[in-house]
Amino acid sequence: MADAGAEDTRRAVDAAHRAFPAWSQKVAGERAAILERVYDGMMEQKEEMARLMTMEQGKPLAEARGEVQYAADFFKWYAEEAKRIYGDTIPASSPDKRIWVLRQPVGVTAAITPWNFPAAMITRKVAPALAAGCTMVIKPAEQTPLTAALLMEIMDQAGVPAGVVNLVTGTRAADIGDALLEDRRVRKITFTGSTEVGKLLMRKAADTVKRVSLELGGHAPFLVFEDADLVKAAKEVLASKFRNAGQTCVCTNRVYVHNSVKGEFAAILAREAEKLQVGEGLKEDVQIGPLIEPEALAKVERHVADAKEKGAKVLTGGRRVTEGGLDQGCFYAPTVLLDTTSDMLVEREETFGPVLPLHGFEEEAEAVALANDTPYGLAAYLYTRDLSRAIRVSEALEYGIVGVNDGMPSTAQAPFGGVKESGLGREGGKYGIEEFLETKYVSVGLK
């Protein structure tokens, strides 16, 4: 792949700037038809993209196929939303005036995306941008440029005009980012990644007063109440926690379970976690692939060691997986920790690995307080058969996404995003296209 720098990035912005007038002036139906063709192209190359994603990112092939479908769904959804960008006519305060409100594209935009969902994190940004009439420069994670490149080929084949979408790959992230942030022609930055980098981008974007959308770190709690169906709850926890080897910003990071069912629930989780197959993602029977890099493995090992030192019990896992030819990789066994406490790293930081800590509670208010005791606020989950409790707790949780008896709530038509230090703005659904539109007020005098 090309290792681009600041000058390459400026050329990409040049191309996006040149392409913007023609693209933004296309009627909505034209843009929609092109987005539909991108969806069709992704479906035609679904298997190729999934295998490529597994090879460069590591997630199991079944999960990669699921991500390709999820990623493509954003093009399908926003092909329709392109036709629903409405303005308003407002009653004027005098008979010789008319007030119109127009919705127009922001202009040239830039997207900086992570490695854990190398297709979906791009399409969730580029599809609404194109639907709104914006052009875009994309900087994918340096660990996963190949999926982005294939996606660009598909968009080109679908008829996305030259310059409307531009890919800049490289290891010099700061040079690329600064070039985007300093260029006044770039009117919006949309970023998915760490809270630390998000804060840096936000500060630098202030110099040119760019719009920003930030989907940042998470530290998702999962509350299991005493009336929960424990088998079903365990299934949801496991699906949420161990997807992509725990390397998702919305995966369960802390489980708070009522003390009356804690032992039983822990046993179910440990039993089911032990069944998960760790290995090379291209093998169809594998559910847990490798972590992305050695530094990620070291963080997981540090979190588990800290928990053990402070009194947590390892019910299963708690070790690297090296047998079966996996000794050269970053594989870690699905791990369940019992009796973790709030002073442990696993409860204070986002582990981003296959480690599941369990913490007991007695009262509903205690569980909510524990869940909210974090600067993050992206996703939270709860399991209960009590409707009143479900409503109370979902309203009390300080999170942008709440799954009630649902550990996998993400979908193209719903708003995705966090509160507190987990970000600004929303992606997905009708809300996602709003991030790429400006509101223009036009007052017309009739005299």
Automatic annotation (TrEMBL):
<dbReference type="InterPro" id="IPR016162">
    <property type="entry name" value="Ald_DH_N"/>
</dbReference>
<dbReference type="GO" id="GO:0009450">
    <property type="term" value="P:gamma-aminobutyric acid catabolic process"/>
</dbReference>
<dbReference type="InterPro" id="IPR016160">
    <property type="entry name" value="Ald_DH_CS_CYS"/>
</dbReference>
<dbReference type="InterPro" id="IPR016161">
    <property type="entry name" value="Ald_DH/histidinol_DH"/>
</dbReference>
<dbReference type="Pfam" id="PF00171">
    <property type="entry name" value="Aldedh"/>
</dbReference>
<comment type="similarity">
    <text>Belongs to the aldehyde dehydrogenase family.</text>
</comment>
<dbReference type="InterPro" id="IPR050740">
    <property type="entry name" value="Aldehyde_DH_Superfamily"/>
</dbReference>
<dbReference type="InterPro" id="IPR015590">
    <property type="entry name" value="Aldehyde_DH_dom"/>
</dbReference>
<feature type="domain" description="Aldehyde dehydrogenase">
    <location>
        <begin position="2"/>
        <end position="442"/>
    </location>
</feature>
<protein>
    <submittedName>
        <fullName>NAD-dependent succinate-semialdehyde dehydrogenase</fullName>
    </submittedName>
</protein>
<dbReference type="GO" id="GO:0004777">
    <property type="term" value="F:succinate-semialdehyde dehydrogenase (NAD+) activity"/>
</dbReference>
<dbReference type="InterPro" id="IPR010102">
    <property type="entry name" value="Succ_semiAld_DH"/>
</dbReference>
<dbReference type="InterPro" id="IPR016163">
    <property type="entry name" value="Ald_DH_C"/>
</dbReference>
<keyword id="KW-0560">Oxidoreductase</keyword>
